[in-house]
Amino acid sequence: MFTIITCGDSKYFEFLQNFENNIFTIFGYYPTIYDLGLKEDEKTKLKSEVRKIPIKEKFWELNTIGYVKTTHKPRCIKDILNEKNQDCIYVDADVIFTSKIQEVEIKNADIGITPRHTKERKPEYFTNGLINAGFIFFKNTEDVKSLIEKWIISCQEQDTTDQKALSDILKEEIDIIDGKRTQKYKNINVLLLDPAIYNDVSCKTGRIFHFKNAGRREISLKKYRIFVSIHEKFPRIISVITMLRRILLNTTRRISGAERRFWAK
């Protein structure tokens, strides 16, 4: 069993409520939520464990190219790994799980990351890292904790983001965009997870739909709310439809040879 965590403040309270209900529906237990600025009455309305830790970085600021820094993430992940004797999945609060992730899917990984979705493989996205840090798996080991310490230090750089910092660390030794599915960063097994499944920003084929920018853009928020409403009523139907889309995607990939590392033995 792994702990699932996310973070949020009052602006994301709606997302946090939907998120914890979604996790309970899919996994049967509630996540841990890190408080980045919730009101007291909001915290009492949440069913999840709510934790608050000191964070030095100005994580809410934009960097010079317009990306939110979100440099709080590694400190929250460090805290949960120290607090609980479990592995951890971090996800952004604007995600919805359409089906359960089984431990066997990540059993050989020390860290599981998602390279950029094909939808995001453009220069303007790569300036903020080669990964999308909206989903990351961490095994609870000392080597992983050492990497997280390095990540925390990198997040203290003036103009970086959490995503760019982790991407820059890992790309020192692994090929994120075109490399094999399993690679080594020092003594750490890094598993590249299919973004079309584990961090689906297209919101069509994933076990995890990632509604990027739903907290900042009205059109994205509207799409998110519509999907949450439908998923709450028909979770099994959504799961089946999404699974069928994945089958079609994999068939198309095999014909074209695309993303071979995610399906070839």
SSE arrangement, N to C: EHEHEHEEEHEHHEEHEHH
Indicate the low-confidence ranges by residue numbers: none
Average pLDDT rating = 95
Largest sheet: 8 strands, mixed
E-strand count:
10
The fraction of residues assigned to DSSP E strands is: 15-25%
Arrangement of strands in the largest sheet:
3-2-1-4-7-6-9-8
First-last Cα distance: 27 Å
Radius of gyration of CA atoms, rounded to a whole number? 18 Å
Oligomer: single chain
Shape: globular
Count of helical stretches: 9
Class from secondary-structure proportions: alpha/beta
Q: Helix amount, in percent?
A: 25-40%
Give a verbal description of the structure.
This protein has helices at 13-27, 40-45, 73-83, 123-126, 142-154, 162-170, 195-198, 218-233, 235-256, and strands at 2-8, 32-35, 49-51, 87-91, 95-97, 111-115, 131-138, 182-185, 188-192, 208-210. Helix 5 (142-154) packs across helix 6. The mean pLDDT is 95. The radius of gyration is 18 Å and the shape is globular. An eight-stranded mixed beta sheet has the order 3-2-1-4-7-6-9-8, with helices on both faces. Strands 5-10 form a two-stranded antiparallel ribbon. Strand 8 (182-185) and strand 9 form a beta hairpin. It is α/β, with parallel strands linked by helices. The protein starts with a strand and ends in a 9-residue tail after the last helix.
